[in-house]
Amino acid sequence: MNRPLVALVVAAVATYPALGLGWCVAMLLTFDPDAWASGVAGHPGVLASIGLVVIGASAIVNAIRTAVSGLRQTRRFHAWVAAREAPLPAPLAELWHEFGPRYRIRLVNTQEQVVVTTGLLRPTVVLSVGLVETLSRAELRAVLAHEHSHARRRDPLLVLLGSVLAAHLWFLPVARDLRSRAAREHELAADRHAATRCGRQALAGALLRVITQPTPAHGAAAPFAGADLLDARITQLESGRPPRPTPVPRLRSALTAAGALAFTAAVAGAWLLMLTNCPAM
C-alpha cells in the first residue's frame, strides 16, 4: 500500500464537506435578500465562508491546471516516441513476453538513456536503442521487470493523481512532500519486484550503468532521476528493506500547521454562522 498517496486521497476527500459548506453559505448570502436585511452579512462567519470559497476555488483551479499540464506532457512525449519509434528486435520481444504480453513495449531510435512507463489508461513501456545496447541481458531483464511492475500497478496514472491531489491541497505545504514520497514508493516497489524476479545484482548493475549516462535532453524520461530517490534505491538494494523517508523540514511543518489551523478556523466560523442564523438564512 502506498501510504503517502492514501494520505493525500483522504486529506483531499476530507476537505470537500468543508469547502461545500463555504459555497453554500456564500450562495445563501448572495441570493437571499433577507439575510442582508437581518444583518447576517456583518457576522464574522461571513469572512470565514468567503475564505473557504477562495480556498476551494483555488484548489479546483490548481488541480485542473496540474491535470492538464500532466496530460500535455504525456501527449508531447508520445509524439516524441512516435517520431523515433524503431522495430522491436525479436530478443527484446521475447524478454518482454516473459512478463506477459498484456502491456505494450516500444523502442525509440536514440542513443539517449530512455526507459519509462507512460500512458494513463493503457500503460506502455518505452526504451531506447542506446539503453538496450548499454545493458547486459540480465540487466535488461531487470529493467523490464521494473517497468512491468509500473505498468501493472498503473503507476503513471497514480503519479498524476498524486500531483493533482497535492495541487488541490495547496494550503497544506506538506502535501508536496506526500506527493514526492508517493512517487518514491512507486519506484521502490518496482525495484522490489524486479529484485525478487531477477535478483539484486542484475538490478544494481542496470542502475549503476544508467546513472553514469547523461540525462535525456527532452527531460521526459530520465531514468533513475533525482539524487534523493537514487540514494533510497541504492539503500534498499543494499539492505533489502525500503529506507525511512527524510523528515519534513520544520518550516514546512510549521506552515502546514498554520494552514490547517486557518482552514479549521474558517470551517468553524462558517458553521457558527449557519447555527446562529439559520432562521434568517
TrEMBL record:
What domain of life?
Bacteria
Q: Which UniProt keywords apply?
A: Membrane, Transmembrane, Transmembrane helix
What residue stretch is flagged as signal peptide?
Answer: none
Which residues belong to any copy of the Peptidase M56 domain? 77-218
Segments crossing the lipid bilayer? 46-68, 157-175, 254-275
Establish whether keyword NAD is in the entry.
Answer: no
Stated name of the protein: Peptidase M56 domain-containing protein
Q: Which organism is it from?
A: Amycolatopsis taiwanensis
